[in-house]
Amino acid sequence: MRRSSGETKKKILTACVRLFLEQGYKNTSVSQIVDEAGVARGSYLNLFPTKDKILLDLTETMFGGQFGVARSIAGSKLPSVYAYAVDTAIQLTLTELNENLREIYIEAYTAPDTAEYIYVHTTAELKEIFGGNFPDYTDSDFYEMDIGTAGLMRSYMARKCDIHFPLERKISRFLTAELRVYKVPEEEQAKVLAFIQTLDIKAIATEVMYKLFAMLEMKYDFKLSMDGETEVTR
C-alpha cells in the first residue's frame, strides 16, 4: 500500500534532524537522507526540493520557546532587555558548545526562508523591548533593523572563540553593539552586561542544549547517538 505523504514527511524529518545534529548540516547528503528515511528520492524531492525547507521546520522548533527560557532566567522583576541579553548570550554560547549546532544556526540565519522566519519571529519582541526608544517606529522599522542585527549575530556565531577572543568577550562585544543600535542608555548597558557576567552562561547553555536535544528527540521520534559531535565540545 502506498505510504501517505504525511508518514513520508515524518520519516524524512526524523532522518534529517538526527543527521544534522549528529554529523552536521553540510555533511548530510540527499542520498543519506533517503537511505536513512527509507523513502524514494523522488518522494523526498517532491516534499522538500532543498534541505533549506527541512531546516525551516527545525528552526521553528528551536526558536519557538527560546525567548521564554531567557525570560525565566532573567526573572520577571528585571526589564525585558535583560531577557534579550540572556537569549543572545545563550545562542552565542550554544554555537561554541557544539559545532553542529553552530552550523545549523549559521545556516538558519543565512537561508532565505529560515532567515525570514527569524526576522518575523523577532520583530514583535524587539518592538516590545525597545519600542519606548523608538516611539514612532512601526513593525516594518523593527523588521528592517533586525535584518542588520541578525547579520551581525551570524557573523559573531561564525567566528569561533579562541584565546584571543574568548566567549565572555564575544558576548560583551556583541551585546554592546546590539544595545547601542537599539539606543539603550550607556548606564543601562553596563548594568545588563554586569548581570550577564554574574551568570554561569556555559552551564545554562549546556542545560538548554540537552533540553533542546531531548525535545527534538521527542518531536521527531529518534534517539541521538551521543558519540562525537553531539557531545559538548570542550
Give a description of the structure.
Keywords: DNA-binding. This is Helix-turn-helix domain-containing protein. By secondary structure, the chain is mainly alpha-helical. 74% of the residues lie in helices and 0% in strands. The chain contains 12 helices and no strands. Helix 1 packs across helix 2, helix 6 runs parallel beside helix 9 and helix 6 crosses helix 12. The C terminus is likely disordered.
Blueprint (SSEs and pairs):
Blueprint: H1 5-23, H2 30-37, H3 41-47, H4 51-64, H5 66-74, H6 80-97, H7 99-108, H8 112-130, H9 139-158, H10 167-181, H11 186-198, H12 201-220
Helix pairs in contact: 1-2, 4-7, 4-8, 5-6, 6-7, 6-9, 6-10, 6-11, 6-12, 7-9, 8-9, 9-10, 10-11
E-strand count = 0
Instruction: State the low-pLDDT regions, or none.
Output: 228-234
User: Strand fraction band?
Assistant: under 5%
Q: Overall 3D geometry?
A: globular
Gist of the model:
Keywords: DNA-binding. The chain contains twelve helices and no strands. It has 234 residues and is mostly helical.
